[in-house]
Amino acid sequence: MQRRRILQGAAVTAAAALLPASVRAVAAPTAETDHPGAQWHPASASNYTPSSRPSAHPVDQVIIHVAQQTFTQTIGIFQNPAKQVSAHYVVRSGDGFVAQCVREQDIAWHAGNWDNNTRSIGIEHEGWVDQPSYFTHTMYARSAKLTADICDRYGVPKDRAHIIGHHEVPGSDHTDPGVHWDWVRYIRLVNLA
What we know:
By secondary structure, the chain is of the alpha/beta class. The protein has helices at 2-18, 21-27, 71-79, 114-118, 137-154, 183-192; strands at residues 39-40, 48-49, 61-64, 89-91, 98-100, 107-108, 120-125, 163-165. Strand 4 and strand 5 form a beta hairpin.
């Protein structure tokens, strides 16, 4: 039995070596993410402020966004140096895939308010505020797990005073995550994660 497992492991390793490098790179986990299970999709360095949080700025909020774009388009916007916008994470609707675009120690430009940017982690969600079909159970569950992890690491209370919508940021003219975002469900999932 032991010999069979060794041979199976060798076969899997050999098969992986035959894959093109571009496929292996996509499939390989990266050590550059702050959240286990996230995959690194870096924003342009022109779209965030390098920092040394939490020592430079304490983190005491998670801000929930809805991108008004697809997942791929959102990543592309964050990677475009002319756009001057980013978030720490993007969550895909259909399968809950999590991309990290900005390290948590750095200040993403997502809230439209410098004070809130310096003390928050921003999470974008694929979809549109007026299309609730994008708010899948899988997306809610993966996002809640991400938010719970952030709250645990920074000591952020898992409540609506500290997990807020973009529309609740002072001076914001945004409406996301919108009236279809189920806050009761989301906060329950965060606390269960």
